[in-house]
Every structure is written in structure tokens, then in C-alpha cells.
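TL;DR need C-alpha cells for one chain.
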Amino acid sequence: MDELAHRAAAVVSRAGGIIRDHWDKDKDIRKKGRIDLVTRTDTAVERFLVEELGRVLPDSRFLAEETAAATVPGPRTWIIDPIDGTTNYAHGFPFVCTSVALWDGDRVVLGVVHAPMLGETFLAEAGGGATLNGRPIRVSDTVDIGDALVATGFPYAIETHMTDILAELEKVLAATQGVRRPGSAALDLAYTSAGRFDAFYEKALNPWDTAAGWLLVAEAGGRVTQYLPDAPYGLAAPTILATNGRLHAPMLDLLKI
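>> reply
TL;DR here they are.
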């Protein structure tokens, strides 16, 4: 697995070169929904990853954002988000990443989150810990919710979830040190694994948004579940809460509607 992880991380890093090369060029932005964008870079990166990861692990399958026909991975499946934070990318805001995870059997066994414009690669292996640019990382040791910096995000179908989102946000803003909404769930989870955020929550995400980050947080010593309801997390879950573990119960209490 260690060799596979580093080969996969090298492929994802090379994919980041496509994002960097396209950064100042015409992005050919199209809309999949009112605020759901796709660019030519999304499709170029996805094609590259499918081809190269297929070479790394022959006979593997793919669940990729721009070409997914389903949202449930099969055996030995690469789960790919070519650009998480496409709206950021379209506006030249560098908080974007490529997220790649390997699903094997009934769990994520490998996760890579690479932020090419920030020069950071987060890597996790099941049972092997988590790293940032090759150095081990751990979740924060924050124990008081009043000292917590919390990240969140808003779904594309914002109108459908507006009432719940505002109710949750009001309570979290009042109880914590601050809330951030950078616009990439995969990076929010990676930052939680590195102790930059103490917690992250969001609803209506897809497997490619969370698969790699889920493993990063778990391998860095944190905890990941659903909220609404409080239940084990899975790739089809409607909500996600990731914390340093110490703040999990207080965050669950805050997020009750």
C-alpha cells in the first residue's frame, strides 16, 4: 500500500500541473446548474487521472465527478474530484484542490488531496497515518468550543437547504471563535486533519467531495460522523461532521435543529 500511495500521489501531483498551466488561460466555463460550474480544466484533469491511475492499478474502477453514472463505488474504485472548488478556480481564488481516494471492499484505504496553487499535498493510508508534504499531521487539541475555528460549506441547491443552513450557522457563529467558508470541502477536511480547523460540517455532499478527506481526518486522530442524525458516516450520507474528536459532542449539540 505504501508504494501504491506514493505512486497515486505522484499522479495527482502531475494532474496539479494541468491546473497550474491553465490558471491564467481561458477556462471555458459552463454551468451544470445555477451556481454549479464546470471548466475545460475539470474535464482535462479527470481524463488524465482516469488514464494514469488506471495504469497504477489495472482493472480498477472509477467514480469521478464529471463522468459519474452513479454515486456508489464498486470494488477497487478510484473516487475522483478533478477540481474541488471549481467556482474558486473560475474566479482565480487559489483555494482549489484535486481529491482522489481509493475505495476497496467497504472502506476508503487511500486518500490524496493536492492543492496545486498552495503547494500542499495531504496523503493518508488506512492504518498508516496522515501526512502533509511528507510530514505527519494530527488534528488539533482544542477542547473548548469557544476556542474552535470551524469550517462549513453551502450546497449548490442552496434554496432547498436555506432554512437549516441559516439555523445551524447562527448557532455555530454564536458559540465558536469563528466560522470559515473557503469553498472546497476536500480542503476543509484536509485542514481539519492538519489542525488548522477544529471542525467541519456540511450537508448534501457527494462521495468525491469527502472520500479522501474522511480518511485524512480519521488517520490524523479525528472523528467523522453524520449529523442530523448522529450516525456513522458513509459516502451516501446526507450530512458530514468532522472534528478533532474532543469537540464532536459539542458540535453535535450545536447542529441539532
